[in-house]
Amino acid sequence: MLGNFSNAQRAEVLTQALPYIKRYNGEVVVIKYGGNAMINEQLKQQVMEDIVLLWLIGVKIVLVHGGGPEISETMEKLGKKAEFVDGLRVTDKETVDIVQMVLAGKVNKTLVNLIERYGGKAMGISGMDGRLIEAKIKDEKLGYVGSITNINIKPVTDLLEKGYIPVISTLGCDKDGNTYNINGDTAAAYIAGALNAKRLIMMTDIAGLLRDKDNPDTLIPEVTVKECVSLRENGIISGGMIPKIDCCIEAINEGVKNVIIMDGRVPHSILMEILTDEGAGTMVIGDHENE
Q1: How far apart (Å, rounded) are the C-alpha atoms in residues 12 and 206?
Q2: For residues 173 and 127, is the Cβ–Cβ distance under 8 A?
Q3: Quick check: 153 and 195 in contact, CB under 8 A?
Q4: Over the stretch 214-232, which tens digit does the pLDDT of each residue have?
Q5: Which domains are seen in the chain, by residue range?
Q6: Which backbone phi and psi does 283 adopt, to 5 degrees?
Q7: 85-103 pLDDT, tens per residue?
Q8: How far is CA 87 from CA 82, 83, 145, 234, in A?
């Protein structure tokens, strides 16, 4: 990021970041990570480097990840066709085993390994560890897709207290020992709420909330929960953005200060959001924040 800068310019950039470093030092920031930023290897490495940098300056990072494309790819290799209803993966018993193998195994440990490689200290867990995410069946037609019933946040706070970056794969469980596939955005919202996080960052494949979905120049930089309701009624929040905004509102209702929807394909977008005036994406805030 600073490769073309002189030493004096680099020093100036770092100085300008100082107020933000002070603001976020010791604060919890939850990052929901997935989409193209996870598929592209170069972007993945940059995201992990950014996370390590924030951790090194004292931000308590919690990384919640998905892995949908990798799950679909593995299913295809095993001769099983992926099926979706309303954007949610139909998850029979065989599929939930594949989801567990890919998310809690391959994807989770790859991210942990990358963070460690760049100088961070990470610990990978799933929502099943310590019964972090308790769930029940969301809809019989979806199979083992879970609706969250409870968050036991202590495994995460224990890791934060010991200086680790928790890396969480979004699986859930119930008291009968069933495993559930949990929507990553929803899980991140609940976890951020349980942590009373200063910020939840949701990395997506779009610039943020747009007034015109085909024009990135119509980005809405900030929106309140109340404004989200009217934007939805007017059709500006539609399609795949509806569940994302619902998760943002859920997180704020659970106690998160604000939520950012940003384009994870933009290099160093996390650093731009946290350490600069400019920011990135759309910030969703509670109605009282503007009073």
Answers
A1: 30
A2: yes
A3: yes
A4: 787 888 888 898 889 888 8
A5: 24-290 (3.40.1160.10)
A6: -100, 125
A7: 877 788 889 999 999 999 9
A8: 11, 9, 12, 22
